[in-house]
Design goal:
With 174 residues, the chain is an alpha+beta fold. It is built from 1 helix and 9 strands, in the order αβββββββββ. The strands form 2 sheets. A 7-stranded antiparallel sheet has the order 5-8-9-1-2-3-7, with helices on one face. A two-stranded antiparallel sheet has the order 4-6.
């Protein structure tokens, strides 16, 4: 009986370690830059039970609440980052997590930057995946992670009245 228990425990631990190792392999580090091409930090994207977890490690940003979205194109040409296109929206919905006709796949909660211009927060993007489907952050050759100057109001189409795009990072499959 002890040998069977030991074998079962070993099997469970092996599967757990394999899952953790594959989760680490699935993470993608995104370099975030401002409109002049200067680094404002990084974001590490990894699978979450519902969506994608985004661990932010940012600096040199204006203090306050900011919108963050996944945009449809894997391009971040400053200063305005218009090359990133609009929000990832494969279902042609309206913008906003509180919009009855939304949200876009690329919509997610706001995050906060402290008085020193830094943010070390984790945000969940519930409408995207790291798979091969049309909600994937890797679809069509990749996407972009965009930070806006103001908070997203979570309902105004097309971008939540979040203001200018102030930082961007290209997301591609490793």
């Amino acid at each position: 009986m002890r040998i069977q228990n030991a074998v079962a425990i070993t099997a469970v631990l092996s599967l757990s370690m394999a899952f953790c190792a594959s989760a680490k392999k699935m993470s993608v580090k995104v370099q975030m830059n401002d409109g002049q091409g200067k680094s404002v930090g990084t974001a590490v994207l990894s699978p979450a039970p519902k969506g994608v977890k985004i661990q932010l490690n940012l600096m040199n940003l204006p203090a306050g609440e900011h919108a963050i979205h996944v945009h449809s194109m894997a391009k971040c040409e400053g200063p305005a980052f218009t090359t990133a296109g609009g929000h990832l929206n494969p279902d042609s919905k309206k913008h906003g997590m509180q919009n009855p006709d939304g949200p876009h796949a690329g919509d997610m909660p706001n995050f906060t930057v402290d008085a020193k211009g830094k943010s070390k927060m984790t945000v969940i993007a519930p409408g995207v995946t790291m798979g091969d489907d049309n909600h994937s952050i890797f679809s069509n050759g990749g996407t972009a992670l965009m930070i806006h100057e103001k908070a997203d109001d979570m309902k105004t189409d097309p971008a939540g009245a979040a203001g200018a795009r102030i930082a961007c990072g290209v997301i591609t499959k490793p």
